[in-house]
Amino acid sequence: MLSAITNLLLGCWVAKESGVFRELPAPKISISVNPSKVITLGGNATIRCECQCARKKLILCKNDIPLRELWFMNKNEFNIGNADLGDGGDYSCQYWPKTKQGTLVKSEHLKIFVADPRYPIPSINLSPKRKLTIGENVTIQCLGGSQDVEFFLYKDGNMTLLQPMASAGNMTELFIRSVQQADGGRYQCFYQKKSEPFVCSYHSYPMQLVVIDYTNGNIFRLTLSVLILLFLVLIIAEAVYSW
Prior knowledge:
Blueprint: H1 2-18, E1 29-34, E2 38-40, E3 45-51, E4 57-62, E5 65-71, E6 77-80, E7 89-95, E8 105-106, E9 110-115, E10 123-127, E11 132-133, E12 138-143, E13 149-155, E14 158-165, E15 171-176, E16 185-193, E17 199-200, E18 207-209, E19 211-212, H2 214-242
Parallel strand pairs: 2-9, 9-17, 11-19
Antiparallel strand pairs: 1-3, 3-6, 4-5, 4-7, 7-8, 7-9, 10-12, 12-15, 13-14, 13-16, 16-18
Protein name: Leukocyte immunoglobulin-like receptor subfamily A member 2 isoform X1
Transmembrane segments: 219-241
Domain Ig-like: 27-94, 122-189
């Protein structure tokens, strides 16, 4: 019996030294907000942290300062109700692993804005203002109501990837060279004052970018013409045979 225990301990030591036993990678934490990254003044939103963690709680941080403990029994959610301008910020989730050697694990940062109705609504324009064919160039222009602002552009209502745009005064432009069909869609923008981060304007009205692939259209028309011609040949052949 003693020999078996000795062999077991020796086997564990060899396994550790040979790297068979390795520390599992730290679980990843994700952070999300519903319904949108931009909350209207007085509106509601829910921030959610998710992690396959051994711990039963996570820490929600705002601007890298701990804000609230989130417990699994409460679905790791933090509700923003009747939002005011101070609710905007840079949010993240974090937790400490149980092991002594564990290091702090953080989620990605999530920027949340509060829309102030006092800010003029920006406008968005396309140049040229027409349907485009694949390979043409287009410029998307956003115009705000004040100076020294930063614009954010998004497509098809998806704010998952907000694209910040460098501005000159109260205007910014995005130049798309050689557009493809994937560039087509509904574009909108909003802006924030650099002096008031996380407070923003309402979004602009959507602007539709239409990209046409004439190659596919020509192939379809050619195929349709061939089918029609083949159908006429069959009709004539049948008429001649019957005659």
